[in-house]
Amino acid sequence: METTEFIKQLEELKTEGKTTQELYNEISSLAMIFGLRKEQRPVVKNAYYLSMEFLIGRSFFNNLMELGVLDETRNILAQKGIDINIFEEIEDAALGNGGLGRLAACFLDSAAGLGLPLQGYGIRYRYGLFKQAIENGFQVELPDDWQRFGDPWSIRRENEKRTVRFADMTVTAVPYDMPVFGKRINVLRLWQAEGDEEAQKISEYLYPADDTEEGKLLRLRQEYFFSAAAVGELIEKHVKLYGRKFHNFADFNVIQLNDTHPVLAIAEFIRILIADYQVNFSDAVEIARKTFAYTNHTIMPEALECWDAGQVKKILPDIYALLIKLHLKQKEDFDKLNCSEEEASDMAIYSSDRFSMANLAVYIGKTVNGVAKLHTEILKDSLFRTAYRYYPEKFQNKTNGITQRRWLMLCNRELSELIDNTIGKEWRSDISLLCGLNGHIPEITNEFVRVKAVKRKQLFDYIKKHEGIDIPENFIVYSQVKRLHEYKRQLMTAFAILEIYKGLKDGTVKDFQPSVFVFGAKSAPSYKRAKAIIKFINEVADKLNSDEQTNKFLKVVFVQNYNVSYAEKIVAGTDVSLQVSTAGLEASGTGNMKFMMNGAVTCGTMDGANIEIVELAGKENNYIFGAEVDEIEKLKTEGYEPAKLMQKNALHRYAVSALTDGTFSDGGTGCFKDLYDALIVGASWHKPDHYFVLHDLQSYVEALLKINTDYKDQKSFATKQLKNTANSAFFSSDRTIMEYAEEIWNITD
Ligand code: 26Q
Questions:
Q1: Is 261 a catalytic residue?
Q2: If you ran DSSP here, which 8-state letter would residue 91 be given?
Q3: Is residue 39's pLDDT more than 90?
């Protein structure tokens, strides 16, 4: 089917009397046929991205754009009296929790865009990440029935289903392929578990935590299920093409493990080579060593998965036996290397009756990479310092990126056109050209201010529609959107807002440019303190939004059900990106990059990729505050007393006391008192204020107010914003993927 044929069919499409859902399915199916028409060039070597999560978002608009027919489709539908935006009713595919899952989706997009053969393997969850509603200020979770409108972008491959065996059950893994359109068409293959009721449960839902909850049996089954299906299939394909020899397996295949979640793939791979193809153990290990590579996404010790050996033995006895063999081999290696006992235990695959997935990945992985410069340094200095001492050559950095196709061209057509008009359209196929904007900033600040106003207005309309809150057009937009976690310090932002509010009321904050703070965040359903913070922000929002004395200057919005589609609106309409994690704890962040690319300044700490953002866009064009990693380390060893900071500072006292003095109600749950205690007394084995909220609060408020003042000089502020866009090419996942392709995978287009 040629483009003209697609257009013709679309023009002939009967639309009268059809529902949005029917139109969605028909147009998507047409686009699938059109998209899949091209012959694929055969490739020598494929890379495979194994990930428990792919946070894809909506495919409709993105795929039509990638196929080069979005504008035509919009026009043809308009001629038929249909606004293409009606398809915004269609569900997001939320098969991920947050950063790690969205990164996987951006990587697939970039690889296809660059023509690189990267295929994804994951799970086709029946329900994605829960939908969030806010009731009475509290988060409520609802099931995410993402296939409600059908799933026209997937193809069920009945003939390629496989069997995955557990000691107590046998499960059929049925692949669903989602094409990823670009210069190449790659495939995201998601496995669905079928069989009896117990079997089906395996792919029923995504674990809604963005860190580890200890040892859930179903989680173990999920991890093994998709890893085994993927690895089994790759080995079979290899045998079909090259016969039963594997010395050359790694010449044709490389497998990237997205965090520890698919690490059992290593054990399954070795198991199959030995059991089904009579490869000897040490050869199998050597082949695995050339095949697997591991990415770490977090240094939080509680998020490094360990499996209870007894549990593994019960449902995966062969994998258990193999892990023990690997452990014994590892011990021999360590003896040869003369490791101390402590060092050996640091790196052990098996200890205290548990298997460490991270240590297995580091032991076998040909490379181990962090996701931002600082993060990789922390891996080398602390988390994996012993392994780094013995295997320094494995360690690499791959700073994360985001796809400019979804996160600029699709979500911000207006800014993209301004860029076209300024430097030509070539940046659309070679993002490195974006830096050309640097030479034209003074000429385009007025246009940029106009574009921002348009995007801001679109965001405000969307917020009005979904949250029922009015925001006047002249408000500056400060946004903090990300999973809710104590280390990300949304609570610190709430305190900062309260302090500004107090200042407005008593007249100490003057000439304040009207501002709105936009929050979006889901909390893991079991994470009590994160849920308390959501309630607190909603209480603050209610109070401030209804205060007639201040609400002409200051508003707060907590958007419900923050997801990829909401993010597309928010990143385009925001002026100030809030990235305020405790230094050392956010591995990279990728929201920060989306905002930067769309011309928001960053108000943040020296953490994760923020460091690289300000390195490239200039510290003078962003607002950095708070303790850096060294200082945090010093506070930890030399002592830190948040209660004293509170005593000394009346504003801090006002903000923190608001938790318990009756200003706000936690609905009688006691959850605000728990937040207060965690800050001032210490709770859950942590010292008081484990995340140094009070330490950084004052400098945070100062930064926010400085931004507010600077904003008044429209031209100079727009210049800062444009400097961010102009220098954001480095954060394209095209760059990241090229680095993986060249430095880890050795694949080409
Ligand atoms: C593990 C066990 C049981 C249940 C859930 C999990 C689990 C699920 C998701 C553990 C971790 C995650 C996700 C982690 C994540 O999203 N990390 C983020 O990765 C981004 C991409 O590299 C970084 O930008 C962020 O800094 C990092 O927090």
A1: no
A2: P
A3: no
Instruction: Decide: 300 in ligand 1 pocket, CB within 6 A.
Output: no
Contacts for 179 with CB less than 8 Å, ≥ 6 apart? 32, 35, 36, 153, 155, 185, 186, 187, 188
Answer whether 608 contacts ligand 1 (Cβ < 6 A). yes
pTM, whole model, 2 decimals? 0.98
Mean pLDDT to the nearest integer, 599-605: 98
CB 674 less than 6 A from any atom of ligand 1: no
Quick one: 11 exposed, middle or buried, by C-beta within 10 A (0-12, 13-18, 19+)? exposed
Model confidence at 212, pLDDT cuts 50, 70, 90, reads low
Q: Give whole-number Cα distances, 395 to 50, 174, 365, 428, 584, in Å.
A: 20, 36, 10, 33, 18
Torsion of CA 360, 364, 365, 366, to 10 degrees: 160
Please name every residue paired with 186 in a beta bridge, in sequence order, or none if there are none. Answer: 180
Q: How far apart, in whole angstroms, are the C-alpha atoms of residue 137 and residue 159?
A: 49
pLDDT for 656-672, tens place per residue?
A: 999 999 999 999 999 99
Q: How many whole angstroms from 74 Cα to the centroid of ligand 1?
A: 36
- Tell me how far apart the alpha carbons of residues 741 and 747 are, in angstroms, rounded to a whole number: 5
b/e code 541-578 from CB counts within 10 Å (16+ = b): bebbbebeebbebbbbbbbbbbbbbbbbbbbbbbbbbb
Q: Which of 100, 357, 596 to mutate to test the pocket of ligand 1 (most atoms within 8 A of CB)?
A: 100
At 699, the amino acid letter reads: S
Q: Verify whether ligand 1 is closer than 6 Å to residue 209 (CB atom).
A: yes
Is 482 annotated in the active site? yes
- pLDDT score, position 64: 97
Answer yes or no: 594 catalytic: yes
CB 211 within 8 A of CB 298: yes
Distance CA 735, CA 398 (A): 10
